[in-house]
Amino acid sequence: MPQLQLQKLTQPDPSNRASVGDSPADLQTLAHDVIRGDFGRVQRLATRQLVTSADAARRTVLMLAADAPETPVHTEKCILYLFELGANPKAADANGDTAAHLAARRDHLRLLALLSFDAKWLRNDNGATPLMEAARTGSWKCAKHLLHLLWQYGLNGCFGQGNLKRSRLLKKKDLEGRTASDLARFSGHSELASYIEREMRLVVDAHGEISGLTDQVSGICGADAAAAEQLCSNFPLAFAGGDGSTGTAAAGQGGRLGRAAASGEPRQLRPALQFGCHRVDVGSWKQLVR
Q1: Which of 79, 215, 245, 261 could join 250 via S-S bond, C-beta 3.0 to 4.6 A?
Q2: What is the pLDDT of residues 264-278, one digit of tens each?
Q3: How far is CA 273 from the centre of its chain?
């Protein structure tokens, strides 16, 4: 059953291929206004039919916005309005790419963060997930965002590595048999590849406690409050409070490790950590927490 659920999460649905619309010029104009964050113009031009149609390459306005290199903060309001009108975050273009794939390639975190969780793990025609695309292009912000999403409770309900949904998602391969870490390393992004590999080695249980760290790593955090805070910022959802807020400051409000870092007493980190499951290279962790 878990394997079937995972397959459903990553398997693209052919019905999500948007049909080519009758007004390509209007679609391009709308996309331009969304990318500029001009909510007034978006509100006047957008219709349910327009936001669900596609251009000749089967790209919807959401995909065109995702493929923009950068957008202002006002774009978020425009995108949320597109969702109200029925924009489909799972829609795929002629190559099977969704808005999440396109945003991940561009490191366009502003848009990727607005998409639903289940729209961020679909495969394209090459079998690649958005995480694989972020790894291949060295898109650090989007890669870290996707990796942090995998710390949530439903994907980390037990101990061990081989039977976690999170672990299986990280080990997914494209049609050429390459994982996200493989793609990062082959593309010359060795630091990002190492970061993904560390994520694959570590395990978080249902209570948000990490295993896979060593006593040596605990010593690093215990000796340096700044290192502890950096550790929390690298894994915000693992150390977040009950309200699901992220980041070091938010983690300080609720998470056990977050409280330790925020209090300036990193020694409190030690009781919350579990050790001895796996060896972690201390040199790599020094890079992670510095």
Answers
A1: 245
A2: 333 333 333 332 333
A3: 24
